[in-house]
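Same chain as my last thread, 258 residues:
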Amino acid sequence: MGAVNVEACFSVMEMISYDLAIIGSGIACSRTLCELAERLKAAGNRGPMLRIGIIERGGEMWSGVPYGMRSAIGALAFQRLQEFLEEPERSWYISWLMVNADRWLRMFVEGGGPGAAKWIADNHVLIEQGKWEELYLPRFVFGMYVSSQAARAVEELATLGLANVMPIHGEAVGMCRTDKGHHIIDVENHNGGRTSVHAARVVVAIGSPPQKRMGTGVVDCLHSHTHIHDLYSPSEDINVKRLEDALSSLPHNVWLTS
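reply #2:
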């Protein structure tokens, strides 16, 4: 990132809209916010409230793609809970699982289909015995847990007068650094409009690479086929259903069988 001389046009106060900007609102952002909240609470209020901007291109905050509702609700963690989290957080997560079991189990059953029913049938004994460490838990449940932590951290920061966290809806498409060390982030909204976000510090917390659109827009206008630009938008489950519907509408003689 090259330095640009914008001070000639803007004063320092005009140039800095946020003390901190975080690009992406997924797990990395949530962890950063929670850690920041703990450090600010420990240090106490030593000045004006920090202004924190969260730049998010999607509609879901705090959980990201792998652990959010854009992934299939039946997707499981790749590790048992014993390997997935270390203490003391593993115990905190287990406590949350137990307190919120009715809610996340109901969501899993209602949205997970046969896979969720089989998972519950296979694991209900471990759940009843409290052997959570042995489970490969649904990924979205960890997203719910982290989201609750981030939401609590944001509320605490505001209540204690330590920081004001504000969402910025759009995609960060460019960033430059001024010759005095501040950052200017170019943000594009869903309508194609652009705005500049100014920040003293920036945390880049992007886990998924940007999606590249296919063709020049003509494809999006055609209705004779199924075109999925992003598997996770609006969700993996919805797009899989779209594929199933498209395939089931084809004449049987186009299917190849082994």
